[in-house]
Design goal:
single chain; 2 domains; elongated
Amino acid sequence: MTNEQAAETGATMAAKIAPPATIAGASLAGIYVSEWVLWLTLFYTVLMILHKLWSMGKEAWEFWGKK
């Protein structure tokens, strides 16, 4: 096995272990993942609603402005 293959294997292993290790570390620190998921979902939903309202307003402005 060459050094390049060993480094790739190590990087692959680190990438695979990172998400569970982060969750475990956050749980030990008292940060519950379920709460973060709920807040991030709410934030994402609000962003999507604002984006949709912006695009609808822009489209309405273009439609009514051309008449």
